[in-house]
Each structure stands twice: as C-alpha cells, then as structure tokens.
Amino acid sequence: MAFGKEKVKILDGPTPLEYLARASEDLGIRLYMKRDDLTPLGNGGNKLRKLEYSVKEALDQGATRILTVGGVQTNHGRLTAAAAAKFGFNCTILTFGRYPGEVSANLLLDRILGADVIIEEPQALTDSVLRAKAEEYSKKYEAQGESVYFLTLGGSDETGMLGYYDCAVELTDQAKELGIEDARVVTTAGSMGTYMGLYFGLKNEASPLSLTGIAIMPFDETKIDDANGQLQRAIAQYGFDFDATWEDLNIETDYSHGSYNNPVKEVRDAILYMARMEGILLDPCYTGKSFAGLMRMIEEGKIEKGEKIIFMHTGGMPGLYTKHHREAFEEELMDGIQIV
Question: Which of 326, 127, 304, 81 is nearest to 212 (CA)?
Fold first, then answer.
C-alpha cells in the first residue's frame, strides 16, 4: 500500500536482485539485475506491479471488463489479460498498428489468456485519438450491460505508478543488504510509468540510489510535454513537497535508434551478449535496446569503470517471437544450425 491506496496481491514477495559476475568482469563495472521479468503471471514483466493497484481500482468500481490500449504486440496488454483472467474480468486490448500476418508472440498469448484483441490500422496516434477510440469501444460494451474500466497505455498513470514507487522502496532495502547503496539504477524509458514510479519513490524516500532512464523511442517535444504532465499530476495527487520538470529527470535519449520496436543490429548483439554471457533473455523492444544503450554508455565514458549498476529487467521476452524480430535473428543465426 502506498499513499493509502490498496492493491491486490499478484507478486509473491520481492523479485531477485542478482549480481552478474561474468558480464561485470567483461564490461568493467559491477553489474546487478533486478529481475522483474520473474513476476508470476502471464510470462512475467514489470506491468504486474502497476496492475496490483489498477486491478484493485477496477474491482472497487465494480467493473466487469478491463479495456486497455497499446501496440499490436503490447507486453502491457498481455499482462493485463493475465491479471483479468486471474481476477475474473473480461478483457479487451485495443491495439494500433498493422496485423503482422500471423498470430504469434504476445498476440498469441493474449488470445490464449482469453482477451479480445482489436487491431486498428495505423493513423496519427495522438492521446486524443487513443482516448476517443477507447471511449467508443467502452460505450459499445456498456450498451451490452458491461461496466468498463479503462486502463491507460502501459498502465502508466498515477495509479499504476505506485507499483514502481513500491519497487523503489524494495530495491533500496535490497541494495542496502548487498552493500551497494550508492549504485545507479538503469531502466527503460517508454510510456514512463516505471521510470516515474522509481523517480518519485527514490526521491521521496530519500534513497541513496540514483536513477537513469534510457529512451527506447524518440523523445520529441510532445513526448517531453507528456512526461511533464505525468510529473505534475503525480505531484498534485500525492502532495509531494518538491517540484519536478523534465530537466530534473535523467533520461538518455541518444540510443533509441530512431524508432520504437524497430529491428536493430546493435540491439540484437546486446541480446546475444546477455544470453551467452549470463543465460538471461532480453527483448528487442525494451530491455535489449536499453541494455545496448547501457553498453554504449560504458564505451563513451558516461558510465565509469567500476561503477555499480542495477539494470532493471522489465520482461518482454515474447517480443523475441514477433515476426520482424524473429526473421532478423533467423537470418543471422542460421550458420550455427546444422541440418544433417
């Protein structure tokens, strides 16, 4: 519970904070990984922390259906579907993008978990368009007698953010036990709910841990305005006794490779590095791209040799099975497959 808001129980205690010995020696830093990919439902991932609060809110409102939004291969949608199944909700995932030509990866898991998936073809996707479409489908369900709880993109609102406020407290305690209170936490920055929760949690609890976000999509003026809006809404709702704007955040924006969820050789190399060095699978949209950025930061001296780094593994492994990423990997890895 944070700020008097109750939550349902999805996580079973703290997720592991692991020291990665081989990668640490090779990279010349002390690298730890916070394993939020090991959360229990729907193949795991960071969104479950947010859903603990959002699902409680939906239950309190008497909702029968959760409707959320995202890309066609949204990890958030998959985990929303899993939580909806566990707590007895109907679920709709309203997605924006092109049908990939196959039911695979998260799209397959969405349907296995019982969610209805609506694919809207690409358009200029603004916040107003997204909310208008969500309202349109909500009214259709309500006309059929349902009560709809709308869950925003990535669960990244003031309610979902509390899941990563809790994580900031949990991580501070774990770092203290390991004697790495002066570590830097590095996390993916996308819809910003995870980053915001960590930011407010670490700052408001006076944690000695520092925080860096690595943007996995271009952060243009609109995206920065959205981030400022998130900051101000959270400050107003929870009464933090400090102000914050985009300039107070530490977001690295140089490693997005120009787009969101695009196939990138450097990102695939980072995924192969972590898999072959530590046996841990990253994904090509979020954690693979942010870890590739972390490796570049080491090369460029933005992360100093010997520095203590806690890398947030936020899940997303089904992304390896999306068509465009899978085909790029297949082309590169076939030389190690012998057909006899």
Answer: 304
What residue numbers bound the domain in which 63 lies?
Answer: 47-155
- How wide is the angle at C-alpha 322 spanned by C-alphas 321 and 328, nearest 5°? 85
Distance CA 242, CA 248 (A): 11
Locate 227 and state its tokens: 């981030």
Res 123: pLDDT: 63
Question: Quick check: is 3 in a domain?
Answer: no
Task: Yes or no: say if 165 and 197 are a contact pair by the CB < 8 Å rule.
Answer: yes
Domain end point (choices 120, 155, 190): 155
Count the neighbouring beta carbons within 10 Å of the beta carbon of residue 136.
10
Reported as a single tens digit per residue, the pLDDT across 105-123 is 999 999 999 999 999 986 6
Using alpha carbons, select from 134, 98, 102, 95 the residue that is nearest to residue 118: 95
Q: What gap in Å lies between CA 318 and CA 106, rounded to an integer?
A: 6
231: left (phi over 0), alpha (psi -120 to 50) or beta: alpha
pLDDT digits (tens, 9 = 90+) for 241-260: 999 999 999 999 999 999 99
How many helices (H) and strands (E) are present in the chain, helices listed first?
11, 10
**Model pTM score:** 0.96
How many angstroms separate the CA atoms of 136 and 145, rounded?
15
Contacts of 73 by beta carbon, 8 Å cutoff, 6+ apart: 100, 105, 106, 107, 261, 285, 318, 319, 322
